Amino acid sequence: MLSPIVLSHVTPRSLVPLCFGAVRVKPGGSLTARFSSEMAAFRKAFSEAKHIAIITGAGVSAESGIPTYRGAAGQWRKWKAQDLATPEAFSRNPSRVWEFYHYRREMTLIREPNAAHHAIAECEARLSRQGRSVVVITQNIDGLHQRATSKHVLELHGSLFRTRCVSCGKVSANHRSPICDSLKGKGSPDPDVADANIPVINLPRCEDNNCNGLLRPDVIWFGETLDSNVLTPVEKELEICDLCLVVGTSSIVYPAAMFGPQVASRGIPVAEFNIKSTPNTSYFTYHIQGPCGTTLPAALARHNSEVI
């Protein structure tokens, strides 16, 4: 079983199991030919798979216009996103952190699932009628997989649209816009905008049995332990899958970055879909390069061997 795991950016590469026997396209030849060869090989593996695990990262949602919060794009005002996504940041300045998450919630509400989200959802629905399964293991907190009608989604890092009370611990779905009156019109990412400095009593509060405790986003922040109620089913799905896709993830946020290589170490085919190579590319059976909204619909389309 997975022991308690803390969300972090990097881990020594030696901690990731080595993968042997990966089938790689030989260097040389045109990019188009290499792409076609990889896709054809993947499609054969896809046609034979009964339990498919799809691990998704920020690159999938980026194609819907949601920032990845990496590099130069990872700034909100003058802070890096990862400096706000910590328990310490929330303890020091809950108003600032709530402004940041209010901005993310409001932006996400006006975005739509893209072709990659829809391809995954359609694949899950289609294969379920054939007695085959698809599970989405996502690092994303935007809910776009569910809005695309995916049913079997495991959210590693929580959800923007749930809250957790810091007093009583109650977790609740929350799609209010704005989440509270005091945040209306707040949260601009402009570096010249000053903090709103909203009094804590006016930030989102718990409504359960007159608790009135301060609410926080129900997301996993850096330095926090991932929820065992999510990790346990994730572990099970990774143990039974006979095909794994790693889609739109940088492979630098752990523990999710370990999942693909761990599956590959069992001799299970793993396909990476990304716009570029990642630190884990060499572990995987297939690397299919390009925008996920272009490559996934083709990769997950009905195979000619399917009868339903």
From TrEMBL:
Alphabetical keyword list: Cytoplasm, Metal-binding, Mitochondrion, NAD, Nucleus, Transferase, Transit peptide, Zinc
UniProt cross-references to Pfam families, sorted A to Z: SIR2
Protein EC: 2.3.1.-
Major location (coarse): mitochondrion
Binding-site positions, substrate: 101, 104
Single GO term (MF): protein-malonyllysine demalonylase activity
Enzyme active site: 157
UniProt remark on cofactor binding: Binds 1 zinc ion per subunit.
Cellular component terms per the entry's GO annotation: cytosol; mitochondrion; nucleus
Ranges for domain Deacetylase sirtuin-type: 32-306
Sites where the protein binds NAD(+): 57-76, 139-142, 248-250, 274-276, 292
Xref: InterPro entries: DHS-like_NAD/FAD-binding_dom, NAD-dep_sirtuin_deacylases, Sirtuin, Sirtuin_cat_small_dom_sf, Sirtuin_class_III, Ssirtuin_cat_dom
Record-linked PANTHER family: NAD-DEPENDENT PROTEIN DEACYLASE SIRTUIN-5, MITOCHONDRIAL-RELATED
Functional description taken from the UniProt entry: NAD-dependent lysine demalonylase, desuccinylase and deglutarylase that specifically removes malonyl, succinyl and glutaryl groups on target proteins. Has weak NAD-dependent protein deacetylase activity; however this activity may not be physiologically relevant in vivo.
Protein name: NAD-dependent protein deacylase sirtuin-5, mitochondrial
Organism: Denticeps clupeoides (denticle herring)
